[in-house]
Amino acid sequence: MNFNMKKNFFEFFAGVGLIREGLSSDNWICSLSSDVSTDKKDTYVKNYGEKDFLLEDIWNISKDISALEGSAFLYTASFPCTDLSISGNRAGLAGIHSGTIKAFFEIIKIKKSKNEEPKVILLENVNGFLNSHNGKDIKHTIEAFSELDYYIDILEIDANFFTAQSRKRIFIIAVEKSLAEKEMKIKNENEEANWWTEFDSNKKIRTAQIKKVILNCPDLKWGIFKINFNNEIHNDLEKYIQKNLPMTSKKWWNQTRKEYLYSQMTRTHKDRLDSLVNAKNLSYSTVFRRMRNGKSTAEIKTDGIAGCLRTPRGGSSKQILIRSGNGSWDVRYLTSREYARLQGLRDSYKLPDIENKALFAMGDAVCVPVISFISKKILTPLYEQWISDNEQSPL
Fold first, then answer.
1. Annotated active-site positions, please?
2. What keywords sit in the KW lines (predicted)?
3. What is the pLDDT of residues 288-310, one digit of tens each?
4. Which ranges in the chain are annotated with CATH 3.40.50.150?
């Protein structure tokens, strides 16, 4: 049996392995993972072993692909968002971090010259990628795929349809032409009206921003998958909280720190907190520090959904948790285990021992059940179609 008949994948920009986690639940086999971060490698290896891991800069891999032995049906790349995020410097694909996607395309080109290119590619990034450099970055990316004879579908999925975290991310699925023509509805002039009807049928995951990208690049290779998406928003933050954390823990803030946080709230947010404190039942809310008119303010969020988890480069990036009710309230930061739960991870997943490293690992990762959803709805059906076409059985 050929190596490329496995239901396998190569994972680039692997981070701490949350794409692998999501795909593994759908029986995908990881043949290789790579990342440049030693911290991320340490966490990855603790959970999945070091057999498949390659610690290397992707630019170096693109210059010598000997480590990428054989083929994989699927390539995944959760490439750095630093230059694309609204919280980053917005240098786009010209930036030193997000620009590493160019090395990824070099690898695909070389593999294609050897007839070892992947049949399917999954890219993940922040939704800011859709408008980075006025849409030029996403256009260049889709052009690169089109030149390699892949057809593209783009989804924008918010993690709050799967866990109690607001986290919008875009997912670009690129499919090799012969497989795309069987599994995707291809955009063409003769059936364009029907194509757009299908596109507009599910606005939860095919947003106006994505539509704008396609309208601005009408001649590129577009296709869409028929997906039934009727998930409801998760607003059950309490489910993800470590309620057994003792009040003697140093994680809970002292009175002085609490009072300072309260002083940063506007009257509206103070009234909101006071109402929660006077309630008969305990409840959990998150608080965000934001700059308003040049002043740092604290804003309480009571919709049962955590904000988007971020890497803890500063205090304002950490999410604050308030437990309130029965006449009192207590404050602390969300723990790394709570971050992990909000990313859809099992509690048996081994986090870094240093809390800040664990927060960084989770803030820089993907939401696991979102990946599982994409796998079950798109990636596995593509693999099964390909197996059927080749009239062989997978290993």
1. 81
2. Methyltransferase, Restriction system, S-adenosyl-L-methionine, Transferase
3. 888 888 888 999 999 999 999 98
4. 3-233+367-390
